[in-house]
Every structure is written in structure tokens, then in C-alpha cells.
Specification:
The chain is an alpha/beta fold and 334 residues long. It has 9 helices and 16 strands. The chain has 3 domains: 13-111 and 320-333, Rossmann fold (3-Layer(aba) Sandwich), CATH 3.40.50.20; 117-121 and 194-314, D-amino Acid Aminotransferase, Chain A, domain 1; 139-191, 2-Layer Sandwich (Dna Ligase, domain 1). The radius of gyration is 20 Å and the shape is globular. The relative contact order is 0.17.
């Protein structure tokens, strides 16, 4: 892990948003003791707010608020934040579009460029960008007459072009199961991938070179969050994840998800262009992505390759105990 106090002569001041989610909590815990940490969220009861002292807890506007980027820039200037780490999907594009203004005011933002985000946040654009670079599942836009002639056959999966998690996903045994979905190209119809699923945490330096691509497998999840898993050596998967990061133009920390087809061949599912919620497994395996991502933004050299070790992890809830009445008490509102 790098000494993050070197570039500035002091620990950097880091604001992590989405402090109520697993990504935000993971980032805050990983950087504890090496940075001065602030936490922000839209919910005053977000758990990650209480990982920092009272004066460093802030309520934020929603990421889809038109004034979001401007208000965050004002807050970062007021708090003299060196690095801003957004962990919520809706925040990414507004902050990417305003990243030059943040940089000019002295705050580096851990966010890919807007064009790279656009490729990843639209699943159809992502598939088209990666086709021919890595294996992608048979995928078409859901339009009139498409289901009846779908090359991969059924069962199949229909999912919104935009959005995260499993919201709106439909497992269709026959074309009739798609009757309630819009046929305007806002949904994808995709080959069902029934095999093992892998999640790869990828660290990309500012020059676009991949410094680590760590495969992990989710053995057990709870509400979509990994609670038991393994970090593995799978060089072919790591190579594919690096190719995806390169072709999409990502930098910083991203997460590439792949799943095996009926023949055991991995195919690209999606890319999350932000720190993932399961990144604590990667940190435990020896690749401290939060620290190296901050180091890169501060101008420090990142090793050409950061190796990881295989391990198993079981995750559990951890209580944050505080004085009566402190829950919901934050320092201010952006």
C-alpha cells in the first residue's frame, strides 16, 4: 500500500459519496488511517456516515439532481477536498462532465471520462463496443418480431439497456413471456448464460494501462451483495477484463462481470464503471485498489503489475455503536 501523505506532505482529504452502500463503506474502511475522510449520502441514517467523525458527515443531493455537480463542487471547495470518490451510478456522468472544473479548483475526481461512461452505462453500446474483442453473448434489441427469430433460442434473458442490478430483468422461457415488455429498443434480448459467474475488479492507471485485474467468484449473495466468495487466479479472465477496460476507455477502478455459457466459455455480462461493493475481497487478496487509485490521482507512480493471492472470504455485518441520539445527526447539507 502506498504512503498517501507523500504527494501533499500530509494525508489527503477524501470525500466518499454513497456512504450507505457497500461500495462507499468498503472505500471508507480501506482508507481509514491513511487519509482524512469525509462521507456523504442522501440518507442521514447511511451506515458509512458513522465511520467518520461528526464534522465530516454530509447530506448530499440526489445524483440526478440538475444542480448536483455544482453543489458538490462548492462543498469540495469549502472542505478543501483533494479527492472525490463517487460510488453511485447516477452521480457518475454529471461529475465526469464537470471533472475539469473540479480539477481546476483543486479536487481530483475518481471517475472515468464521460464518453467511456456512456459506453458502459448503456448495455447495448457496451456489447457493440466489445464485440470482436472478447466473447459477448448473442444479444439483440427487443423490437417487433425479434423474439420469434432469436438466434440463441429460449430460455433467454430480457433486460433494460440502462440500469443496474436485477431491476427489470425477465427470464423468458418462451417469446410469450416478453409480451408485457416494450418493443421500442429500450430492452435487450440476450442469450442465457447458465454457468459460473465471475466478477473482476480492475485498476486502470490514468494512462489507460491496466495494473491489476482480480477475478473473484460469488459463492453466496444476500440481496445481490456478496457475503461469501473466493479470489482466484484466472489469467485468461484477467486478460479479457483488461481488453474490456481498454476498448471502453475506462480508467480508475471498474468491475467487469462475465458468466460462462452452456459450454463453459466466459462471455461479457456488463461493466460497472465505479468501485464495486465486493472490493474488500480484492484488498484482502493484496491489491489495495482504493489506495492505489487515490495515489494515481495525486500523481504517484503505480506499479506496472500488482499481484494478488488466492483466498476465501466470508463477510458479515459489523455494528457501528454511537451515543443515543447521534443517529441521523450530520454536520451539514450540500
Amino acid at each position: 500500500m502506498p504512503d498517501l501523505s507523500v504527494p501533499l506532505g500530509r494525508p489527503p482529504r477524501v470525500l466518499v459519496t454513497g456512504a450507505g452502500g457497500p461500495s462507499g463503506v468498503c472505500f471508507l474502511r480501506a482508507l481509514a488511517g491513511s487519509c482524512e475522510l469525509w462521507a456523504g449520502d442522501i440518507d442521514p441514517n447511511a451506515a458509512g456516515l458513522y465511520l467518520v467523525e461528526h464534522a465530516r458527515r454530509w447530506l448530499l443531493p440526489r445524483g440526478d439532481d440538475a444542480a448536483y455537480a455544482g453543489r458538490l463542487q462548492e462543498l469540495c471547495a469549502r472542505l478543501r477536498i483533494d479527492v472525490l470518490v463517487p460510488t453511485v451510478d447516477t452521480e457518475l456522468l454529471p461529475l465526469a462532465r464537470a471533472s475539469h472544473e473540479f480539477t481546476a479548483a483543486g479536487t481530483r475526481v475518481l471517475v472515468p471520462r464521460a464518453a467511456a461512461l456512456a459506453r458502459c452505462l448503456d448495455k447495448w453500446t457496451l456489447i457493440e463496443a466489445c464485440r470482436g474483442t472478447v466473447r459477448v453473448p448473442c444479444t439483440v434489441l427487443l423490437e417487433p418480431g425479434v423474439a420469434e427469430s432469436f438466434e440463441a433460442g429460449f430460455p433467454a434473458v430480457a433486460k433494460p439497456r440502462r440500469g443496474s442490478g436485477s431491476r427489470g430483468v425477465v427470464l423468458a422461457d418462451t417469446p410469450a413471456d416478453l409480451a408485457a415488455l416494450p418493443l421500442d429498443g429500450s430492452y435487450l434480448l440476450q442469450e442465457l448464460l447458465p454457468g459460473a459467474e465471475y466478477s473482476l475488479d480492475v485498476l486502470v492507471a490514468l494512462d489507460g494501462t491496466v495494473r491489476a485485474a482480480v477475478p473473484r467468484v460469488r459463492d453466496k449473495t444476500d440481496s445481490g451483495i456478496i457475503v461469501a466468495g473466493r479470489v482466484l487466479h484466472r489469467p485468461a479472465l484477467s486478460d479479457d477484463a483488461a481488453k474490456v477496460a481498454a476498448v471502453t476507455g475506462l480508467h480508475g477502478i471498474c468491475n467487469v462481470q462475465v458468466r460462462e455459457d452452456r459450454e463453459g466459455r466466459p462471455a461479457l455480462l456488463e461493466v460497472n464503471p465505479r468501485p464495486p461493493g465486493g472490493m474488500s475481497l480484492t484488498v484482502a487478496a493484496g491489491v489495495h485498489m482504493p489506495a492505489w487509485a487515490v495515489a494515481s490521482l495525486l500523481g504517484m507512480d503505480v506499479p506496472g503489475h500488482i499481484p494478488h493471492r488466492e483466498l476465501s472470504v466470508v463477510r458479515h455485518w459489523q455494528d457501528v455503536v454511537m451515543d443515543l441520539g447521534e443517529l441521523g445527526d450530520v454536520a451539514g447539507r450540500a
